[in-house]
Structures are given as structure tokens and as C-alpha cells.
TrEMBL record:
Protein name as catalogued: Clavaminate synthase-like protein
The entry's keywords: Oxidoreductase
Superkingdom of the source species: Eukaryota
Domain TauD/TfdA-like: 44-316
InterPro entries: AlphaKG_dependent_hydroxylases, TauD-like_sf, TauD/TfdA-like
Family annotation (Pfam families): TauD (PF02668)
Gene3D superfamilies given in the database record: Clavaminate synthase-like
Amino acid sequence: MPANLSFFAETKIPHQRNYGGVVFPAVLSPEAVQSRNPSVLTAAVKEQKPSLDSLLHTHGAILFRGFDSLATASDFNDVVEAFGYEELPYVGGAAPRTNVVGRVFTANESPPDQKIPFHHEMAQVPEYPSKLFFFCEVEPADGGETPIVLSHVVYERMKEKYPDFVEKLEKHGLIYTRVLGEDDDPSSPIGRGWKSTFLTKDKSVAEERAAKLNMKLEWAADGVKTIMGPIPAVKYDETRQRKIWFNSMVAAYTGWEDARNDPKKAVTLGDGNPLPGDIIYDCLKILEEESVAIPWRKGDVLLIDNLAVLHSRRPFALLAGY
């Protein structure tokens, strides 16, 4: 850990993994009880941001644990603002969400019994966030972990086991197809309607915003089919000098299912050929094997590098009264 991160103490927890001497994720806690105050944390983030950025670059993800005085979405927003990262409007994403305060949105609003498969946030569109923050305001009664996995590890394992398939992915990329209703469907994990997807009620504005994403739209009476791609499925991370598994292939193939969408048709190779189901499900197995799933505690903040790390969501049960 950088020596000048004096406000924080590096913490070890049972769920961490170790890759070549680098723990995943890094876990930071306050070094003193008085440091748990939200305003003290935000001041420390502003002061020590270069060191935190370096730590994030090395480890891919940082869990801030023990800041249990972070009680509200507003407290969390202050922490996010303290990092000063550029905000990316949520245009083109699939999940139904609601803005809570400032830069804070609800997590995927699909029913809690539904699993959200592994993905990089908005990997199916050309413009995606570089960083993601997660916050635990209320601990789930059961489940609800956010499993995370290092993207380059997945790439290396897939390349070793399925070199021909990975070569096709690198050559052709992927095409993603999703049918959107007019309004949000909270019963679906991909239930974001076209109005909230493109942040407009005007079809012509939606067309303009889709065009900026290089997305094709095919309008129907009750919604619109969006076609994105071919878009790369593997990227080269220049800052870490390694290839990464950067796509929503497994998420689309195994999870983009609702009344409008058939997941087997949601993603194909960039040349139009279907994906091999056996390899997709084996990739899912690799993702699960390499993932870290840390149970949430009240006040937890998780920061991940969206280029380095995929994430998912396990089903959960809410506490009584929520």
C-alpha cells in the first residue's frame, strides 16, 4: 500500500484472492475511530486521491470497509464527488434505475430473486464508464453479494482453453441485439425502456443519440429493436499492458431474457454466426471460479476499475420492513 495513505489501514479479509502477490480486492479501513466520520473520509479522499488511484490501478478494486457512519445516499454521493471522476450519463445501459441524489442511482431494480450475470458496465456500447462505485445502505438479510473478477485472468484462461474461439472473438467482435419497450419494466433485469435509455421521449432525439453510439434502431409499434456492433469483445489495456476480457457476452447469452428478448439471439459473433453455447457456459464457470464475493456490510463502499474488473449480482432477501 502507498506509504502516504496514512488515513487508511490496509485490512485482510477471508474472501480476498492473491494473484502473484497482489491481493484482490484491496480493502481499506479507517485507522482510527474518529476517522469514521463521513466528512473526514471525503477530506482524506481529496487529499490522497493520487495514492488511491495508484492503489486502484494495481489491485483493480478497493473495498472501503468500517466507515459505518456512512448512512445515507447523500453521504455516499459526497464520497463519490470527492474522487472527482468525470460523470458519464447513463445512456445506452440496459438496467432500470432511478436517480436518488446527485450522482447516485439505485442498483438494478429488477426483482431481488434474479441474478445479474457477469459483465463490464455498458461494455455493449462504445462509451462506457472507467470507474464504478457501489454502496451498502442496508445490509441484505441474505445473499446480495456483488461478485467481482479480474478481466485479464478470464482472458488468459479462455485463451488457454479455447484459443480458436478467442481468435474469432478478437477478429470479429460481437453484435448485441436488445428489444426495448416504451417504458421501464421493473420485472426484467434488462427492462429499461427506450425513453429512459436515451433520456428522451422524442424518437428523433433517440435516433440522434443512438447514432452517436453507432447503434441501429428498428422501430415497432410497441418499442424498438437496438442493434449494436460489431464491437470488440477483447481489449488491450494500455496502462497495464495486457489483454482483457471486455464484453457482456455471458450476461447477454444467459441473462438478457424477458417478454421481449430471447437471450440466445441477444448476442452473436460480429460476422453474424451464433455463439457456441457450451463455451459460453464454460466461460460462466470460469467467471464464477475466479470471482470474489464479499458479503455486504452497512457503510461499505466498493470502487472498481471497469476496464480491469467484471461484476455481477447474486439474488438476495431484504430485511423486514424494506
